[in-house]
Design a protein that fits this description.
Length: 336
């Protein structure tokens, strides 16, 4: 049997990342009884997440930086950074703003609302899913343990029957089992042996973390996560006195260091799109689109994502061989 290849309309690349620092992506509001500045949560599960828009915005700026660093200044008509980063709205005189050119890797991959040259908007070739928790670090009497749930593992590609492993939603399941109980933060649970292998869903996760993974029910996962988020307290400083400003104390929460997140980047086939009725020149295949996106990943570990990045927060390290676990549409052929 042979497979005849056809051009794929899109390719999805799965990624994993680990928080090097606590990560705060705020909602801009408060939640009564918790902290002043809360982080984004999934509306159904109440589990914290990082919106795809936050990831796309940070990566756009970082890719523009990376492209500008490798560009010959004598051959540039318009700088990638800062012009092609950010929202890119041109000024009234037409200066600044996204260039919107067919040969610009930033504008073709991330899109633009309207270019400085007057071109109509372009959606971009890369689409980013929300970043969801795969593994969450929790303190125990045995040291840190990384907790996951059936729903989180299914997003990572685990068999749907993983839910059948949870025979009692008030217990914790560990690969090697164990006697007695283990505390997950304030919660004490009995331990049972995990009867399935999780390696396929945890490919790319460091070995020292995989050895300390435990599985709980989806119901408990949300409670454990929200009870063990990092909470910090800050105060504004009065510039005239150099001391704490009266009444300016506030708290904010964050995903703790060591949290493992998962997300997908969907890269479209450039040949299906055009700018001003002209074919794109910067990228030719979905792999080219993905390679442009990956140029921003080292900057995530150095410059971070979300808020409070000047206060020791935000850095994220992308794990493993970025995008090695991919799937695409089409491409099936017939028998020879």
């Amino acid at each position: 049997m042979t497979i005849s290849r056809v051009q794929k309309s899109f390719v999805c690349y799965r990624h994993l990342g680990i928080a090097v620092d606590p990560i705060h992506v705020g909602t801009g509001g408060t939640r009564l009884g918790r902290v002043d500045n809360t982080i984004v949560r999934d509306p159904a599960t109440k589990i914290p997440k990082i919106p795809g828009s936050s990831l796309a915005g940070a990566l756009r700026a970082y890719v523009a930086m990376a492209q500008e660093n490798t560009r010959d200044p004598s051959q540039r008509e318009k700088p990638y950074y800062p012009d092609c980063a950010g929202q890119g709205q041109p000024r009234s005189g037409g200066s600044d703003g996204h260039c919107g050119q067919r040969n610009c890797p930033v504008c073709t991959v991330f899109g633009f609302a309207r270019s400085s040259g007057g071109s109509s908007g372009f959606a971009g070739l890369a689409a980013f899913s929300d970043m969801h928790l795969l593994l969450f670090p929790v303190p125990t009497r045995e040291g840190p343990m990384w907790i996951t749930s059936p729903s989180a593992l299914q997003l990572a590609g685990a068999d749907e029957r993983i839910e059948e492993v949870i025979k009692d939603e008030h217990r914790v399941y560990r690969p090697k089992g164990g006697a007695g109980c283990v505390n997950l933060g304030w919660l004490m649970l009995e331990v049972e042996a995990l009867e399935v292998e999780l390696d396929g869903a945890l490919d790319g996760v460091p070995e020292n973390i995989r050895k300390r993974v435990a599985l709980v029910s989806d119901k408990l996962f949300s409670h454990i996560v929200n009870s063990n988020l990092e909470t910090r307290t800050s105060v504004a400083i009065d510039a005239s006195t150099g001391a704490a400003q009266d009444g300016a104390l506030f708290t904010y929460e964050a995903l703790p260091r060591g949290s493992v997140l998962q997300w997908e980047v969907t890269c479209r086939f450039p040949g299906h799109f055009s700018i001003d009725n002209q074919p794109l020149q910067a990228v030719q295949t979905p792999d080219d689109v993905h390679n442009v996106v990956k140029k921003g990943y080292p900057y995530l570990e150095a410059l971070g994502i979300g808020g409070m990045t000047t206060r020791g927060m935000g850095r994220l390290r992308v794990l493993g061989n970025s995008g090695s676990d991919a799937y695409a549409d089409g491409a099936q052929g017939g028998e020879a």
